[in-house]
Structures are given as structure tokens and as C-alpha cells.
Amino acid sequence: MLPWPSPSPPPTPGTGLSDTGRGWRYEDRLATYCGGLIPYEESAVFTGLDTGAGLSRDGEYGYGETSFRVCRVADLSVSVGLVPADATRSDTRDDMLSMMGGGSPDHLPLPLGGGWRGFTDLRNTGVVLPCTNKDASLVVSVAGDESHENVEEGHAVGRLATAVAREAAGRASCEAAFGGSLPELSPPKGKTALLSASGTCAGIRLPDSAPDDWIDWIEETEASDSAPLERCLLGGTGGTRRGRLLPEGGVRPVRPTAAAEGR
Question: φ, ψ for residue 43 (rounded to 5)?
């Protein structure tokens, strides 16, 4: 006698579909959504397989090889496209470079690691893949909000960004070196003295014109030779000192901002 087949999973409340059915429908939607660039596993963490609210915006902008896509994955905005080596930011037109978030000065970027040229400040995440066969880089930018401001969420967003970059490079005929699995993110080290700097603040020299008490503390992250964005935060009891980094490794003091007081 043949064994009875295993029962199918019950439908998810409110959908009329089993989890298996929702998975099939989600996979079908991803085949055409955002040019097929969004991965199943890494995106389902955020969408819960919801093809409505989870995959709610798909737009293509620009022209030719420098066109780019902007797509929603739950509450994340994913932008992906090629950036020519001689590109400059524009305030008057839509292009991929101008879409990239530079991050907030109060949120230090962390290197993604794993051999990827990428960073996250737990709101904005970026991955850059220099193409070896053309004078351009494949860039992925993922913008989130305060709900992702922890290293666990940041790690999941990083996995999404690197998976999108891997798929997009192939579709854009961008031959590039990929990284591997992402390690756990290392959070900022907290406030320390300038003399104890060992990460992104190491080696910064203050100008002779700066007063002795100009810097009371620093905040930094681990330095990385693969992170496309790094930042060192300099602060004092009267507010955070914004510093302008100089090519020779020094920093020029700029006026403290009142919004940073109490850090």
C-alpha cells in the first residue's frame, strides 16, 4: 500500500495560500521585479514573502549604460547601476552617483568586510564593484531608517546589498571580483581619547592653530583597506567638532554644531 502523502502546510491567515504557495508566487514576482536583481533569500528576511507591500516600487531612470534602477524591498530603497570613473555628482539630473547616500556625520560607517568594497552606517549601505573590463564601477546603495540601526539588521542589509551587486554585475557585463560571506559587523568603539586612536582616527594630526582643549574625545571604527567610506568623529564637551580631512592626513577644525552637543 502506498503511504499517504504528507499534508500541505495550512494557508497563511488572510492570504488563502500556503507558505509554499506564497514562496512560489514571490519567486515568480522576483523574476521580473527590479530587472530580476533582487535575491529571494536575502530579501524575504525583510518582506516576509509579501509581493504587495514588500515589493512596492520599481523604477528605471537615466539612459543607456548609465541608467539605474530604484526599487523598494519592504521599507528599504535599493538603487543599483553603473557609475563611470569620471562621473561627478549632479544637483540637476538623476544619476546613480547622486543617488548614493553619504551617510549622516553622526552615524559612523562600518566596513562590511568579507572581501567586499562596502560599508554601512546602519542607515545607508553601499557596495562598489570596480569593473575590470570597462572604466566604470557597479554600485549598489540601500537606504533604510532608524528601525535598522543595530548590527544584526545592518548585517542583513549588507547581505542583501552584496547579493544584488553580484547579480547586477553579471547583467551589466561588469567583470569584477566578489567577496565572500559577510562577517558580523564590529560596532563603533565608543568615545576614547585621541591619543588612543587605533582605527579610522589613527594618524590624524591637528593643526598648530588648534587650541589644546579643542578635542576631548574621538569616536572611530576599525580601519579597512576595502571600505569605500570611512569617518572619524572628533568631539568636545561643548559640542562635536566637525573636522575637514586634509590630503596629508591632518584635519582642519570647523565650527562646532549645536545639534551635536551632549554627545
Answer: -85, -35
